[in-house]
């Protein structure tokens, strides 16, 4: 039965705008969406990259105003390991499933060439897990725990001299996989003048090496002004603290020094408030959306291309998923048939070789049998001759014996007569 290819026809119709004569009610869709989202809760995953001791865990505690009870990391690990911990947070009636992934041992090795590899593999593994769930026949995406990383907070050591080579290499490897926000850790160790020069130096090096960091969106009018001004403050110089100090009538997060107090939430002391505002209160949903629409989509496109799927054929004509599947299936069946034919030919060849070996062995056995039979006949003949000779010798012996006995008897009789 011949297959019939039917090309889908694209029907273009002009869209008309109509006026309603009365209230319908679909203006409540935003409220329905909000209620549904609040009911389901939200997921947000943060990747913290930085050398051991830069205050990653402390900053997380400060950002979410809680204590995640993370354990200190040693400095003598042979390789980089990623540890992810998921927490359930609730503020008012909004639930947030927060996952914090820490790079344990990052930058502690003597050879730092492959420090980024574990991070890249982990991000790809989360994309792959989501893709496999998406490709299932029976999917459960609404209840699936999305572990894709939405933002990477890259902690920069406050040296004041620019980025290290490991920083540039790692961020370059990750800029197409995750939203990167560079952060100057422990910013209270640098003076304000040095800090501004350090920020400018970092941005110049990122641009010179083609590293694309996350830019806060300015296409939404409600946040375009604040996001535009905050983009100019990147990288954020932050300070974290788990200690509370009473200043005046207020108890605030701060770091106490002999020369004074650094308040975490004081914008004249550091950029912590700016980071929290941009990361959590303004652009969290944009980061989630960009992760799915940009980074995951890029990974998905590459993986499907590796699997042999494409939107166009060899002639650059549109190709449906079903057509691609049929082509892949046909090619797969042909490959199986070819392998089956090769295996059959190989089997026949081996059978022939085995038959030839058996015939040769049979021929050798026949030759051995003929030789043994010939040797046996020859031996029988020799034995028969020997038996006959022995019989003849026996007869001759008996005859001579008889003659000897007769001669002796005759001689004895002659002697008796003489007497």
From TrEMBL:
Pfam families, alphabetized: Septin
InterPro entries the record matches: G_SEPTIN_dom (IPR030379), P-loop_NTPase (IPR027417), Septin (IPR016491)
Domain Septin-type G: 40-306
PROSITE patterns membership: G_SEPTIN
GO molecular function, one term: GTP binding
Keyword list, A-Z: GTP-binding, Nucleotide-binding
Region Disordered, residue ranges: 397-419
Keyword Nucleus: no
SUPFAM superfamilies the UniProt entry points to: P-loop containing nucleoside triphosphate hydrolases (SSF52540)
The family this protein is said to belong to: Belongs to the TRAFAC class TrmE-Era-EngA-EngB-Septin-like GTPase superfamily. Septin GTPase family.
Protein name: Septin
Organism, scientific name: Euphydryas editha
